[in-house]
Design brief:
- The chain is α/β, with parallel strands linked by helices.
- It is 30% helix and 18% strand.
- Strands 1, 2, 3, 4, 5 and 15 form a 6-stranded mixed beta sheet that branches. It has a 6-stranded parallel beta sheet with strand order 9-10-11-12-13-14. The protein has a 3-stranded parallel beta sheet with strand order 6-7-8.
- The longest helix has 18 residues.
């Protein structure tokens, strides 16, 4: 039976030496002894799970496709991704679209792939069929998604959607910004400060509170996507127990106040905010108010990022980071005295739990034999030529 060993294997209850025996993709036994592959003191993590990936195939494969996205996932330590229901054409809002996704993914993926469904105003009748077909849950937008085929849901419709998902036993994921509190960009359109002002913290907080109230009334497992601000963290912390949140490496790494004029490669929504917000996100991860770090990988061709004009108003809002989630998160975590056990929870166990992928996310007997061999003392140089994902 194949086996591997390390002096630092990350288990749910801590880090210790262990030998792992596996067969046909399943962990068969955990104990002591020699192994076919001895990795010394390199760290063995559970295979990472990234539950926020926009693959965009079919329809916008030139933005990102399953072949390139899953190669990037593997290169970055993610052995499972969950694909978002947009920006592919058609979006995954009915079973026929899900079948197209699965067909597109077949025979070209390098890691395991699962799928979120989406809810748009005219698709609510398709929720039971998508649940039966095996989607992990459903994403809703409260604001313009950026693509015309995935319009937002009105806040007053959320209770009916949430009740349907609670009955189906799957979570509701929300892009939480209040459209009434967004404004047109004023001033210099090349300025990230102008873009920040157009999507204020108050919009994120108001939307999180509205979604939190729905979670409290309906009992549906509810998850706030790409949390960017201290105010949103506080709103989640004051919400019901069935409300959770995630953040992303770009919010944990960059300081929105320092983004240069015209640097539209940094544009995303919600926007990258200032240093105080970044540090509060780290504090929230440390104490559990936010439970995971996912990529929100959303690449687009360079011309859609308006790199030639540097116009934040017209640039596509998305960052390509699928391959870099592990080193970027570990860099910030280690600088703040946070450990490998934290990393395993944020990047593997908690995303797997959210998506209902019960065989993923931890190293335990009977679970899938998905492992990442990681050198936490090494450095990583980000080189465009070594990135497997597009753009």
């Amino acid at each position: 039976m194949p086996s591997l060993r390390s002096t630092r294997v990350v288990f749910p209850d801590g880090i210790r030496p262990a030998t792992l025996w596996h067969e046909r993709g399943v962990i068969m036994d955990i104990g002591e002894g020699s192994a076919d592959d001895d990795f010394g003191d390199l760290v063995v993590l559970p295979g990472l799970v990234d539950t926020h990936v926009h693959v965009n195939e079919p329809g916008r494969t030139e933005w990102e496709g399953f072949a390139s996205a899953t190669r990037a996932a593997a290169a970055g330590g993610a052995t499972t991704i969950v694909d978002m229901p947009l920006n592919s054409i058609p979006p995954t809002v009915d079973v026929d679209a899900l079948d197209l996704k699965r067909t597109a993914a077949s025979h070209q993926v390098s890691v395991d792939v699962a799928f979120w469904g989406g809810v748009i105003p005219e698709s609510t009748g398709h929720l039971p069929g998508l649940i039966e077909a095996g989607v992990c849950g459903f994403k809703v937008f409260l604001v313009d998604s950026g693509v015309p085929e995935f319009p937002p849901i009105q806040a007053e419709s959320l209770d009916d959607i949430a009740n349907a998902l609670a009955t189906g036993g799957v979570p509701m994921l929300a892009h939480a910004e209040d459209p009434d509190l967004l404004t047109e960009m004023a001033g210099d359109r090349r300025s990230h400060h102008s873009y920040l002002a157009s999507r204020p913290v108050e919009s994120e907080v108001a939307a999180v509170r509205a979604v939190s109230a729905v979670a409290g009334r309906t009992g549906v497992r509810t998850h706030i996507l790409h949390v960017s601000s201290a105010g949103a963290v506080a709103a989640i912390a004051h919400g019901p127990a069935n409300l959770s949140g995630e953040t992303c490496p770009h919010y944990l790494t960059f300081d929105g106040e320092d983004i240069p004029d015209g640097a539209t490669e940094f544009k995303c929504a919600p926007p990258i905010r200032g240093r105080d917000h970044r540090e509060e996100l780290w504090a929230a991860l440390s104490d559990g108010r936010i439970s995971m770090v996912v990529s929100d990988h959303s690449p687009a061709p360079p011309e859609l990022k308006a790199l030639d004009t540097g116009d934040f108003a017209t640039a596509w809002g998305g960052i390509a980071s699928l391959q870099l989630r592990l080193p970027a998160t570990w860099t910030g975590a280690s600088q703040r005295g946070l450990g490998l056990e934290n990393l395993a929870g944020w990047l593997a166990a908690n995303p797997a739990e959210l998506a209902g992928l019960h065989r993923k996310g931890t190293i335990e007997t009977g679970k899938d034999a998905d492992f990442v061999i990681f050198d936490p003392e090494a450095g990583t140089v980000v080189d465009a030529q070594s990135l497997e994902h597009r753009h």
